[in-house]
Amino acid sequence: MDLTSPWLPPSEDESRTPRSSPTARSAMRCVRLLLACTSAAELLGTVLAEGPHWITGEGSALYLLDQAGMLRLTASHGLPDWAHERYGVVDPASELPAAMALRLRRPYLLSPERTSVDYPNRNAGMGTGMVAIITLPMIVDEQPIGVLALALAHRGTVPRRDLDVLETLGDACAHRLSHLLDHVNAGARVPHGVRPGPGTAGEAGQAADPAAGLAHPMLSLAVRSAGHGAFERDLVTGETYWDAQAYRVVDRPPPAAGAPATAPDLDRLVHPEDLPDVQAALAEALATGGPYRITYRVPRRSGGAVRVEETGEVMLDVHRRPVRIAGLLADRDRVRAPGERPPADGPADSPAAGARSALLLALTRALSRAITVRDVTTAVTDIARPAFGAASIVLDLVDEGRLLPVSHTVYGGPRRTELTRLADLSEGVMQHALARSAPLFSEPGRAGRAGRAPDGGDARPTGPLTPAAWAVLPLVASGRQVGSCLITFATERSFGREDRTLYSAFAGVLAQSLERARLYDTHHHRATELQRAMLPRTLPRLPGIASAARYLPSTEGMQIGGDWYDLLRLPDGRIGLVIGDVQGHNAEATAVMGQLRSALRAYATDGHDPAATLARTGRLLSGLDTDLFATCLYLTLDPADGTLRAARAGHPAPVRITTDAKAVELELPGGPPLGVDPGAPYPLSVGQLEAGETLLVYTDGLVEDREEDYDESVQRMLGGLELWARQTGPGRIGPAPALERLADLLTLNVTERRSRPDDVALLLLHRTAAAQAA
């Protein structure tokens, strides 16, 4: 079993389940889906995809006991190669966490300090020391089955409620695995206290995993008896593999030795009249993920056709992109119910013209959901390429009169290299097609005329990677040249009139999508530049302090907002610290933010204390022609004696990290947000920041999470700050590099989220010991 293969996330749409209580609903839904899983890999994938969001996934694993009583790594996610080699087999008598959990028969928690220091080494927990690992023993009826290890995003202690959720998920995995093992290994001799997986458990390097169930003789016999053949498609490489029975289903000779082999191309297998139907259904399945079912005809070698029913599932990766399809092929005539009449020998579901329209509609829907150019490229790569049965698709965009490739950004590794070479190979023909505003199609079997341009020139891509067949589509939208699209095929094919019409229509839809996406990217870039232009380019170097700041835009909407921060040099050597958040995520919020920042800076440098500064700024906002309001925190620090003066307008309280590694919120009575009540007073609070202490101010986007209570998120952040302070040690948190690293760690938790609905701004200020002496 390939331990590094992607796990299979559930296909059901999360949006169908309301989440009034996010953690509880997520746990209940996850348990329900776990009880329907069919393999260890699927169990782990379901926990990561459907469990509470604070299960990060990176570094998670599932171990099963083999016949020799050893824990063997069966499924994993995010483990590096060295971890597979070093911890692929764990002795239950060892001191490793998986062994400890099984021996103690209770969850064994590894704190974030240990994940960054002594287990397995500093690579664990992404090297941050801010990720905990919990190992859960899987035991059913007093019999141990294995261990589930999960990486958690908890920065401090793990609440009891979260532990209860984790134990429930571990129990659900244990009972489901017990059921799978009982059925897969029926009749097998099992040593007392050991639950082996299928296959030759106990062999070196052999994982005990129900994921190998199809290879088990009993299940293989059942599949063959039902007349089904198994298949698997790698959507990244485009390769499809069949077993011997799949070849028999479609009336093709099976490979020699009966081992899985590369399957015939779809266009050479499916009846020409049914191919558009299959492509349309496949495009829909790729766009949504999950199970699908297609019926189509396959011409027999002896004449006539066999009706094949393809039942499979599209598997998505952690980014919800399709990466693999697996399923079964069945002879529909063989499995027809008694008394059911054989179907007519016409097209499977609809006329070919209607099917091509359905395919184009499916592709249009997929492209309509794309927002950025990268989204469009991803949709073309993930949906259009497999639906067309293409080997590769290369997109070039017009930029200042030149064609620049953009497809490469979707892939990494060898695939990117392949696309780069193909783009270089096809540069001339793509430019030619765009210049002529006419698509070009290869003409296999006619070497003398293949790919000839209308003016008689040779427009073929030539070289060692020359595809067997190809189509080059000029992309033109609203009379403007957008780019070119090269679609290549691994085998020769003819492009009939209907095919050329379909590809030309697809080119029009693709061109419109790219034009819209480029416009969005341009607006977003300008808005982001505007946002960043209104923030300090750098923080001023001020005596007696070290500082660090971060800003992250929202990932929703136009990705701009009204968060801002400022560090001011004030009269008499004092320092001003400002952070605020204007309501909304649009250009107006950014414009209002700029006005407030300028006004507050002016009031502060005139010598007004924080309370008076906020009161004046609030009156100014109330007088502006806007309905927006803003939260704000303004405080001053005297580096010489550490005196703090602060006022707060509906903003989160600042956090002080003490020299004894405590993180506490400052108690600051505040007033309403700016712009709500022009006459509202703002109390002035006075405090002290000792030498060696650090102050954190932030906007609520740093801790706010739709799936977690706000107060719990704050407590989690405070716990993480305390961990950092303990690890850094007294007197070591002050240097600028250490403060920069702390800023990175604080934003790491935000960047790990699937979406960021709000902007994030934070500012760290550390009072150095030198300032006290001065």
Topology (SSEs and partners):
Elements (H helix, E strand, L loop, with lengths): L21 H13 L5 H11 L9 E6 L5 E7 L3 H7 L1 E2 L6 H8 L3 E3 L1 H6 L14 E9 L2 E10 L7 H25 L32 H9 L2 E7 L5 E3 L1 H6 L11 E2 L3 H4 L5 H14 L1 E10 L5 E12 L5 E10 L20 H17 L4 H16 L3 E8 L2 E4 L8 H23 L3 E2 L27 E9 L2 E10 L7 H37 L11 E8 L9 E8 L5 E8 L4 H19 L4 H14 L6 E8 L5 E7 L5 E3 L5 E3 L19 E4 L5 E5 L11 H19 L7 H16 L8 E8 L1 H5 L1
Helix pairs in contact: 1-2, 1-6, 10-11, 10-12, 11-12, 11-14, 12-14, 15-16
Describe, in plain words, how this protein is organized in 3D.
- With 774 residues, this protein is an alpha+beta fold.
- Helix 1 (22-34) runs parallel beside helix 6, helix 11 packs antiparallel against helix 12 and helix 15 (587-605) packs antiparallel against helix 16 (610-623).
- The chain contains 19 helices and 27 strands.
- The model is unreliable at 1-25, 115-130, 185-216, 342-350 and 445-458 (pLDDT under 50).
- It is 35% helix and 23% strand.
- A hairpin with a 5-residue loop joins strand 11 and strand 12 (322-331).
- It starts with 21 loop residues before the first helix and ends with a helix.
- A 6-stranded antiparallel sheet has the order 3-2-1-6-5-4.
- It folds into 4 domains: 14-213, 2-Layer Sandwich (Beta-Lactamase); 226-334, 2-Layer Sandwich (Beta-Lactamase); 370-527, GAF domain (Beta-Lactamase, 2-Layer Sandwich); 534-773, PPM-type phosphatase domain (Phosphatase 2c, domain 1).
